[in-house]
Task: structure prediction
Amino acid sequence: MADPNRAYMRPRYSPPRLPQRVGGHLVPMRPFRWPPSPSVQSELSSAVPNSSPTLSGFSGQAPIAPPARGERPPESQQPGDMPEAIRQLMGMRPIDLVFPSPFIRPIAPPRAAPNDGGYIPMGRWPTWYARNALPPTLWRRQLEITGISQNYGGNIFLPANQSANIPEELSTSLWLTNLPPDCTHQLLLGSIRGCGKIYATVINPPVYNRNDFARGAPHITSASKLVFFDRSGLERLVAKSEAGEFSVGGYIPRVRMNRIKSAPRQPGAQSRVLHIEGPTSIVNETFLNTFFQSKFTYELDLIKTVATHGNWTRQEWRFGSYRCQAESARQSIAREKTRLNMSEVERHRWSEVKVHFGVDPCA
Result:
């Protein structure tokens, strides 16, 4: 017969939460739960020396006050000092509080959940979510590793947004400042001719309030990151700027190398300009704009109807970038053709839609 004095019953108290300091933030640990059966109790007793049902080290105490900023938590708060069996029961993983580690690598975004079949390019994980979810120290360390400014508003977890590991003399990325305050993609790209194909364009509007800017002073003009497909396109634009032959909307841009380097792309027909042809019910500005807006974010340089014959239309779409815009438009149309939940009439119309690369007028 079992000894009635053995403490196999659950305690009647609710243990408090212990704060665990990780990267400057307090993360509450899950409260300790006693095992429901004697067999688990015996395993705990054998794994943890001198354990008792009360666990005086965890019960009846108020949460430990966090140390002041810059101080290391006292030894009583170090999860590494707890017995391994208790740490496993509490759902904790060993954490290295010596941060940042010299061997840390850039964080990869979590995989997107399966969707309804619509195309979502590049697997988006909002940067604002990461900025607020990660501890500040970890966020700053991530920016240092990827070489990205704290003011960057894009997705820092995409390798395409991070600095390439190449010499600067091979980079195809420029940083343009002193652009018109109301600068648009059409205005900027329309001022570039005879240089080379544009791979990506990002325009930063003016910042009039210091509170809108992470670091540095406000500025009243726009700035732009401009990436070419190859190095020769960059060199031609730099030469025009140095010769006083490059202006945008009456402003003389300051052109210099972007510290976020981009590697040259393989030669090919890829372009930010697409020629889309097919039934007029699909190939028209209103329908395609609505369709593209439901799939990805983009900017436009120009939409032009090249030809119309009866119910057949061919249009030229000049996107602001090839990366994530023109390429996403092609993939969205290709994906739509394989969608299963549409009528035979819709399937027939989409099967007639064709997409071709056009010529970039900046080249």
About this structure: Residues 80 and 96 are 8 Å apart (CA to CA). The first helix runs from residue 38 to 47. Strands lie at 19-22, 25-28, 173-179, 198-204, 222-228, 254-257, 273-279, 300-309, 312-319, 354-357.
